[in-house]
Amino acid sequence: MSLAISLHMLARAPRPGRVKTRLIPALGPEGACDLQRRLVEHTLSVSADGFSQRFLWLDDGPDAELQALAEQQGWTVVEQPAGDLGERMRCIAALGLVESDAVMLIGNDCPAIDLDYLAQARAALVDSRAVLGPAEDGGYVLIGLRQNDSHLFSDMPWGTEQVLSLTQARLAELDWRYELLPVLWDVDRPEDLRRLASLGMHLR
């Protein structure tokens, strides 16, 4: 069975003082901004063959440098819809499902997402209504859906260690079959910077 799956990356536009704020004490506002840009660029560069469409959803208007890079690599750049994170994700999933059989939402904070991981997620959606990529901190780095339901996104304590377990509980309440991918790490804390260096990502 072949599914048309669209890939959607939600990212904050790199603005000094407004991104990666927990890393500002270690990197400074400009360094944290540079990190955000590097992470978005890295995720854009991950080969994403197998997706019907790819969208970069920025939260703070256009960024000419990122837009040029994204379009060069086959992504469409759009502004995120209004609302809290859950409402934005719900809306993006709903819009994606209008033109594709399934949607996959990722952020830019997980440099460990690669071609193989995305392929695993696509394969999972053939037999399941949802797929989740767990994060070490108790959230998730990827969610793929063949259906949309606001219950998955509303009243969610985003940024806490409860997000994954609550999402799993809500999937069970909906009686949706889902699959879990291997656990990955994302970049939130100063100690994560050493992991970035091990991947060959060094800040300018």
UniProtKB/TrEMBL annotation:
InterPro entries membership:
Nucleotide-diphossugar_trans (IPR029044), Trfase_1_rSAM/seldom-assoc (IPR018641)
Q: Which domain of life is it from?
A: Bacteria
* Any matching Pfam family: DUF2064
Q: Tell me which NCBIfam families the record gives.
A: glyco_like_cofC
Please state what the protein is called. Glycosyltransferase
**Annotated organism of origin:** Pseudomonas segetis
